[in-house]
Amino acid sequence: MIVGITDTMVSEDKFNYYITWLKNSEVPLEWIKLSYELDNLTALDKCDGLLLTGGNDVDPGLYNGQKVHPKISDVNRRRDDFERNLLDKVLQKKIPTLAICRGMQLVNVHFGGTLIPDIEEAGYQSHRSIKNGENRHPVAIEPGSFIEKIVNINSGTVNSSHHQAVDKPGDGLKVVVRSDDGIIEGMEFQNKNDDYFFLLLQWHPERMADVNNPLSMKILKKYLNEISNHKTT
């Protein structure tokens, strides 16, 4: 099976975290890097799943945000537009999709939602990464949600490496995970169709030090299992 992975556009090291994570499951797979620089939107037709990665800030113009903001940087509208086109294709074909950090924020904006330009400026505790370790915080998971069925727990601890977050959820999206200070950490479809994997996460399961944490490993295994099932249909 083949997973399409969007280029982080930040560093090859960060992109490789996703590759290493996928390989942790020991499921045979291939992957294709997807980006506007490669101009390979049609390569998604070869993919059995899509992984939307982290990276720089989403263009605030896409959610009627403040276009000039001191905390928003490295906006790349070409990346935004390319990945929104990917989204349109996977939604049409119901390709299993996992969106991580910036990926979740982009999906939310694509569905008409908005973002908090800067978490700390908005009065929340820092969710940025820290040197020589992980910035960790607790999360609460909504009972009965799709993700709760995957991980089989209703609370846990995740890593944190972001300065923006979802503000108003997009149309048709439901908040199912929140941090202890109220930041939205996970979303899924309001009307969940159990035969279609579509999950949005704010944390980075691919970079968690405790690789067997259910909020990393169980999500990975379920994602790849759904990709395998999609491939055979």
Describe the structure.
This protein is an alpha/beta fold. The protein has one domain: 3-Layer(aba) Sandwich (Rossmann fold). Helix content is about 25%, strand content about 20%. The protein has 5 helices and 11 strands, in the order βαββαβαββαβββββα. The strands form 2 sheets. A 9-stranded mixed beta sheet has the order 2-1-3-4-11-10-9-6-7. A two-stranded antiparallel sheet has the order 5-8. About 40% of the residues are buried.
Computed over alpha carbons, the radius of gyration is 16 Å
CATH topology: Rossmann fold
Distance between the termini: 12 Å
Return residue spans where pLDDT drops below 50 for at least 5 consecutive residues.
none
Number of domain modules: 1
Tally the helices: 5
Q: Give the H and E element order.
A: EHEEHEHEEHEEEEEH
Q: CATH homologous superfamily? A: Class I glutamine amidotransferase (GATase) domain
Strand order of the largest sheet: 2-1-3-4-11-10-9-6-7
In round numbers, the mean pLDDT is 91
Summing up helix and strand content along with how strands pair, one would put the structural category as alpha/beta
- Count of DSSP strands: 11
What global shape is seen? globular
Indicate the multimeric state. Answer: single chain
In what range is the share of β-strand residues? 15-25%
From the coordinates shown, what is the CATH architecture? Answer: 3-Layer(aba) Sandwich
In helices, the fraction of residues equals: 25-40%
Using the coordinates above, name the CATH class.
Alpha Beta
